[in-house]
Amino acid sequence: MTTYYHAKYLAHSLSLQSTTDSLGKLTHSMANARVDLNPHQVDAALFALRSPLSKGVIMADEVGLGKTIEAGLVLSQRWAERKRKILLILPATLRKQWQMELEEKFFLPTLILESASYNCLRKEGITKPFERQDAIIICSFHFAAARAEELRQVSWDLVIIDEAHRLRNVYKTSNKMAQSIKTAVSHAPKLLLTATPLQNSLLELYGLVSVIDDHVFGDVKTYRDQFIHESDEEQRNHKLRERLKALCTRTLRKQVLEYVRYTKRIPITQEFLPSDAEQRLYEEVSDYLQRQILLALPAGQRSLMTLVLRKLLASSTFAIAGALRKLINRLEDMEADAVMPDMSEDFEGLDELADEWNGDAEPQERMDPSQIRQELAILRSYAKLAESIQHNAKGEALLVALEQALDQATTLGAANKAVIFTESRRTQQYLLEILSANGYDGQIVLFNGSNSDPHSKRIFKEWLQRHQGQDIITGSPTADMRAALIEEFRERGTILIATESAAEGVNLQFCSLVVNYDLPWNPQRIEQRIGRCHRYGQKYDVVVVNFLNKRNAADQRVYQLLAEKFRLFDGVFGASDEVLGALESGVDLEKRIAQVYQECRTQEEITLAFDALQAELEGNISHRLVETRQALLDNFDEDVHMRLKMHQDNTTLKLSEHEEKLLALARLELVGQADFLPEAPRFYYYGPDAPKGLYHLNWKEAEKYGDTFFRPEHPLARKIIEGAAQRELSLAHLELNYSDYGAIISSVQSLRGQSGWLQVTKLTVETLEKEEFLILSGCNEQGDAIDEETCQKLLKLSASVRKKEVQQTSPNQLESLKQKLIKERLNLVEARNAQFFDEEVAKLDRWSDDLKYGLEREIKELDKELKELRRKATVAVSLAEKLAAQKELKIQEKKRTQKRRQLYDAQDEIDERRDELIAGIERLMLQKQKVEVLFTISWTIL
Q: Angle at CA 766, nearest 5°, toward 761 and 769?
């Protein structure tokens, strides 16, 4: 491809907005993603994008199948279409993970909005922080509910809700948060992500579907009658599945084993016995935290801060010593409005915890000076004891466990690497010192929220020097520091000691040893940690090390709950969908466990409390509902395997074609600015419009060699695509060289020695969505038509522009052929949109039938009451009883007559609402079209 005509054709091919139901719709976003795509993820993304009339879908793949990637594809597609008012609502603990995934894998800009960043933007004069199109907004459930009115005022192009099962009880009037969020985003198209759309009741499906679209089912009572009280279970499931099939997609892990290789988790439990001094410190601080009055902790934060102090107490004596000193300082400087000292440096997960715990409603105790002095004396004694303990039994146990676990990982063939998680920065420093003194000096990388230590700064400086001028440097100090530390661990380190920061959005699949030095009580946090290593791309079984305090009954029961009930540490997939779904939120379980620690003083009390908690959890897992979920949502159709296989093959083909076109365009447009390597889709760029260096069109190879990943949305690629697409080209004659092609193209070979015409036209159709088509119309000199596929192949031949006088008008046959091809495309668009229209009308018909059914049910209930009253009037003995019965009967008959009139009026109203909705759809479907001739050439094939 050697002319500007080829370049213009390629540029438009690369930037077309394709039809909604084809793989071409996703090609642009797939080509921009730095991720290995599995066919089920492509399938789910296509499902979500299928109908432009849809209000949204539920993506309900089982745990571990990459719902984030599926959503990322849809996000990326909407972003490419310039639909950029996008909101993500998710648990606070997942905000940073989503941010890193979208920025690193899809190159999408994001902004986390929480109280601090929101207020900062307001102070800067940005009055509507949610209403922006330069970044995808990420916020937590609680923040979204608190700002519901602001969300409602934004015309969102897409809203994604992760862990959406938290909204499944939205139909209950008591669920204020879910109702606030539903109302706030009711006008927006939505993606709901959850592995557990159905956990305890069929009403949960009603709730989740109503979040997407209120016009799928009628009211709750009607839903109960039709789908819960229905005695024929098979018929009920069939009817319900029909309603859900356009709204819910679910892939099972067993369906993708052909494409996804899963490794196992192998648990190692390292027991330890605290010293007498450590045990005394634990018991005394624990007793202190159970006091009725605590002046050192603000009443509004007591439960949260008690949890944090207990976690620091279990972490290390160094962690609790620092926290105790902060409490002492607070009491020493205490005034009536004293605030809690900042503990976020001591306990890195504090911000996320605070977001979900929402404070307490306990009244503040009055400050008695004598009580302050007494509490100060106690805290000082605890701090002195903590600071006197320089050796921790758990730290010594780590040395033993680490050696054993690294040997295990090496036996499995994995790299000699371990990531150690702690919740405290002081514990992190202690672990650095003890490991450095015991054979690991110079092999350790620290990773936390600030990364401000001298060692991390040195690593960052060296990283910047190594990658100077490369695309890997983003310019964001936080993101670049994280990348530098992870590269150091991957390439040169043995141990990464990480706080909760590394559990969020960091991929460590090159490491297969996870050490939970401190164990969170929230199963979702643990799953998130282990998931940094035990994820797609991990080649080896992952060893998981946990520590067990043999002198603490509550710690032992927590571990038993997490290991045996949640099965977090062994098996192939970690926690099951059923168990995680039963939680609603891991924070709920965390609060319950904290309550046990706070209220139970004896081993017997601890045993009874954990028995009750475990029984309650078991009761939340309805095996009957699991079977129902399988019948309703799990797709066992025979075509699933074939469809996934087709997606796998077609995705590879489409990406290959896309890469070829982008490379061919780059060769044409970067003449004199780049040297192209013959053996790979790789070039060295030395032009003025981008950093000099090596560029690679394959993201894996780019990562391997440290090249810049050259993708359609890279600024240099965008520049050459836009430049070639906008270049004005006049009519010209091209000599096409078939003999240079190097392969046989039968349809072109038969045209050798002939001449003819070719025109490339862009057809833009705007109905429900904007769609673009390239129309290739061609004919030979005799006016005989050449099919579009042959025209495409003509444009694969190398060519030269022949300097001779060219007939200035193309033959009439070319125009006729173009109009015929345009009509065919428009017919296809109309047929497909008619199908979408029919689906929406059918949905609205079912919805209106449901509402009418509900009204008719009320009439039937009144008829039953009337029948009973007539029976009573008949059997009445005395005249007074008969008169009273007739009087009551008359009242009820009048009530029924009124109800029947109301029924007719309501049915008319429902029909009017249905007609209004359909009229709205019809207005959306009004077709606009634009025809633009990109270029016309005459040709001769040599």
A: 120
Q: Which residues contact 697 (CB under 8 A, 6 or more apart)?
A: 659, 662, 663, 681, 682, 709, 710, 711
The two three-digit tokens of residue 391, written as one number: 């050796």
DSSP H or E run through 159: strand 158-162
Question: Could you tell me whether strands 110-112 and 418-421 are parallel, antiparallel, or unpaired per DSSP bridges?
Answer: unpaired
> What single DSSP character describes residue 437?
I
Looking at CATH, the fold of the domain delimited by 393-574 is given as Rossmann fold (3.40.50)
Cα–Cα distance for residue pair 760/9, rounded to 1 Å = 8
CA 310 to mean position of chain CA atoms: 32
What does CATH list as the number for 649-727? 3.30.360
DSSP state of 687: S
Q: Phi and psi (nearest 5°) for 595?
A: -65, -40
Closest by alpha carbon to 735, among 454, 941, 888?
A: 941
Give 538-585 as a 3 state SS string: CCCCEEEEEEEECCCHHHHHHHHHHHHHCCCCCECCCCCHHHHHHHCC
Contact 56, 684 (CB under 8 A): no
Cα-based distances in Å from 872 to 223, 382, 864, 888 = 33, 78, 13, 11
CA of residue 9 relative to chain centroid, distance = 35
Distance between CA atoms of residues 456 and 559, nearest Å: 33
Least confident of 243-257, 341-355, 702-716, 920-934: 341-355
> Is it the case that residue 357 has pLDDT exceeding 70?
no
Q: Is 240 exposed, middle or buried (0-12, 13-18, 19+ CB in 10 A)?
A: buried
Whether residue 48 contacts residue 59, with contact meaning beta carbons closer than 8 Å, is answered with yes
Domain map (residue ranges) of the chain? 36-255, 393-574, 649-727, 728-942
d(CA 831, CA 935): 29
Read off the tokens for 909.
């109203």
pLDDT digits (tens, 9 = 90+) for 584-605: 556 678 888 888 999 888 889 9
| pLDDT at residue 576 is higher than 70 | no
The Cα 203–Cα 167 span in angstroms is: 12
List of residues 6+ apart from 448 with CB closer than 8 A: 348, 425, 428, 498, 499, 501
Three-state DSSP at 932 gives strand
Instruction: Count Cβ atoms below 10 Å from residue 603 Cβ, excluding itself.
Output: 11
CB of 548 within 8 A of CB of 269?
yes
Tokens of 463: 């990283």
Same fold, 36-255 and 393-574: yes
CB 79 within 8 A of CB 490: no
List the beta bridge partners of residue 299: none
Q: What is the mean pLDDT of residues 374-386?
A: 94
Least confident of 103-107, 718-722, 817-821: 103-107
Residue 268 burial (CB count, 10 A): 16
Task: Extract the tokens encoding 856.
Answer: 């008719």
Per-residue CA distances from 761 to 9, 259, 548 (Å): 10, 40, 70
> Coil, strand or helix: which one is 296?
coil
Pairing verdict, β 136-140 and 86-90: parallel
DSSP letter, residue 96: H
Q: What is the CATH number of domain 36-255?
A: 3.40.50.10810
Helical packing angle, 639-669 and 24-32, nearest 10°: 60
Instruction: Give the chain's end-to-end CA distance (angstroms, integer).
Output: 15
Residues 6+ apart with CB under 8 A from 620: 199, 200, 582
Query: Could you tell me which of 819, 724, 829 has the C-alpha nearest to residue 770?
Result: 829
pLDDT-wise least confident of 152-166, 178-192, 611-625, 824-838: 611-625
Distance CA 847, CA 393 (A): 64
Q: Which residue has the higher pLDDT, 913 or 336?
A: 913
- On whether the CB atoms of residues 768 and 942 are closer than 8 A, the answer is no
Evaluate if pTM is beyond 0.90. Answer: no
Classified as helix, coil or strand, 419 is: strand
